[in-house]
Amino acid sequence: MAFSVPPLPYAFDALEPYIDKMTMEIHHDKHHGAYVTNLNKALESAPNLQSKSLEELLANQCAIVPDNIKTAVRNNAGGAINHDMFWKIMAPKAGGNPSGNIGQAINSTFGSFDSFKEKINAAGAGRFGSGWAWLVKKGSGIEIISTANQDSPVMDGLFPIMGVDVWEHAYYLKYQNRRPEYLAAWWNVVNWPEIEKRFNSAK
């Protein structure tokens, strides 16, 4: 069965003024759309993989994927799974401080929410070129990592609890080259109840 792009769970302009409507339209329809289209195209030559989940395709550095389509699957399945999460962990009228289990885990691991935010922002601002800053479940704990391009933590057996997209297409129309400004604004749209759900279901 072919993969598809899930609809945004809110209107394109719902995250204004922090993320503008045109960025959301292009990011969701064109960029996420292209990852899904290109993934489906790559899998035409491997029909036995078409029923696999994105997680299964990416597991162990795309171990089940034939070499001739491995790069295409890594890039495009990564782009698809990363964005499936990204749209859900943002919401209008969101932000604020995390509570519940994720709030406790952040405080006990990083000392405070402010310290955690600083570290995520530093991971995002410090990522050279395109990529992501992540909070992942690793063993019984959590840690901050960053990945290049559309590489997903799933490829290394890590569970992504939340991630912020620092590809230029995620912010350039509004923030131009001011990535740290985008990262600072992004916390106003973070959907903590969804992140709490992901944290509680983390494998």
The Rg value, from CA coordinates, equals 17 Å
Q: Could you tell me the number of beta strands?
A: 3
CATH class of the largest domain: Alpha Beta
- What's the helix-strand series? HHHHHEEEHHH
**How many separate helices?**
8
Q: Give the distance, in angstroms, between the N- and C-terminal Cα atoms.
A: 25 Å
Find the CATH superfamily of the largest domain.
Iron/manganese superoxide dismutase, C-terminal domain
Strands of the largest sheet, in order across it? 2-1-3
Mean pLDDT: 97
Low-confidence stretches: none
Query: Proportion of β residues?
Result: 5-15%
CATH topology of the largest domain: the name is minor pseudopilin epsh fold
Structural class: mainly alpha
Number of domains: 2
Helix content: 40-55%
CATH architecture of the largest domain: 3-Layer(bab) Sandwich
How would the blueprint of this fold be written?
Layout: H1 21-42, H2 54-62, H3 67-88, H4 100-110, H5 113-126, E1 131-138, E2 141-148, E3 159-165, H6 172-175, H7 179-186, H8 192-201
Antiparallel strand pairs: 1-2, 1-3
Commentary on this structure:
The protein is mainly alpha-helical. It has two domains: 68 residues, Helix Hairpins; 102 residues, 3-Layer(bab) Sandwich (minor pseudopilin epsh fold), CATH 3.55.40. The protein has eight helices and three strands, in the order αααααβββααα. A three-stranded antiparallel β-sheet has the order 2-1-3. Helix 4 crosses helix 8 and helix 5 packs antiparallel against helix 7. The longest helix is centred in the N-terminal third of the chain and has 22 residues. The radius of gyration is 17 Å and the shape is globular.
